[in-house]
Amino acid sequence: MKKTNSGYSALCNRRKTKDAKKKGSMSANSRCVKNIAQLAMRLLSIISKYQRLSISPFMMELINRFSIKQHATSSRKLNLRLSLGFCLVLSFVTVLSSPSLANEAKNTGKPEAAPSSPLVVKKQVFEMPLFKTFGGQHIKDVKVGWEAYGTLNEDKSNVILITHYFSGSSHAAGKYNPDDAATGYWDSIIGPGKAIDTDRFYVVSVDTLANLNAYDPNVITTGPASINPDTGKPYGLDFPVVTIRDFVNVQKALLESLGISKLYAVIGPSMGSMQAIDWASAYPDWVERMISVIGAGQSDAWTTSALEHWANPIKLDSKWNDGAYTVNDRPIKGLVASLMLITQHALTPTFFNEQGSNLGFKNIESAPLDDIRQSHSIVRWLRERAEARAESMDANHLLYLVRACQLFVAGHDNNLKRSLASIKAKTLFIPAETDLLLMPYLSQNAHQGLLSQNKNSTLLTLDGKLGHLEGVSNISAQAKAIRLFLENEKEANL
Asked: Which residues, other chains included, contact 214 with Cβ-Cβ below 8 Å and sequence gap of 6+?
């Protein structure tokens, strides 16, 4: 029994020793694993600091949880190796998954700039005591607003002019105040390090004459709603008819007042594209490059007739009164109806059908079934959108912009072929394949007309459910092409 007890005691002692060693080994492993995890997290922190990476909370939590799990496991060298391997893999994956480095890896061209605060811009005013229109009439005390982004270089050779679309303004990029809800309409491509790089270019944008947003405090324009200095009353329809060329000539006068006599490029969407190509045709020695987005070389018979539909609702509104209405009693109903048409023409059936689905559109909705005065959900949405926009817009101004677009042909001499022949600029056309307003064939015709005269012209397309608005809201889809075009890369690289 004594021997047995002695043997049992020895066995117990051996087990205790073994357990103690095991416990010590586990403790050492745990400490080592913990240290490795901490090292991995430190590594990520250092990388984050110098590469401007964002370490995801998921990654941090995963490392922590793995470390805790290793404290509870009984494995030895294997777990130690796994711990080290896992933490290193996590570090590697985190680095590779960083947005900034991932983008650099994917980009074969110039890396996109890191996100930055929006440009804060200031609206400026340009004044002309007397302006002669293309039609030969005179407008006194012309005022237009303008904005600039970037810095004008010493020899004033880095100027890019942005010409805005029908319902737009000179607010192409940035914000007037940091707290503003939205940026300018092309902020995605205008700014430091962007396609139109304000670290390199001095970018100018100008409110047109008869700008649609006549009552927007951030728009400065002379038009039918302005006071006629000869009468002390609003011009109304006494305001002279203005053309795309008149918009161009006001811009030219502004640039000349700044000592500028050359444009590195002129770029514009929609009605802005008309201004851009007219610039290139009317003043070929001024324009080195031209980009026409969702544009046209002229308004053909179809387009001219389609534009007339925008004017008709205003003229049918009893408050329009042949243009002689007051600010407080404007033809809002007619203006809203026009804006509803414009919005629908600028989008696509795909967009509207998706929007209808979101609104719960049904053919047989209770409101329009019960009352002829009620509308379907999609119609109410369209009207409410137009009503909100109409608050800052003027009906007569819309009529004048319609007429300017109807009168448009590049060069303004009723011969597009001859007008295209005068263009010296390198040109890029970017129509939208789903555009129902300025249909792609209009850009294609201008592009082919230039090619037939051995001019340097390239055509790319936008494709999406936004139709005409692809050129405003989704212009970033062709940001790389615009950047390369402005960097003088070969068209084959676009």
From this structure: 221, 223, 225, 392, 393, 394, 397
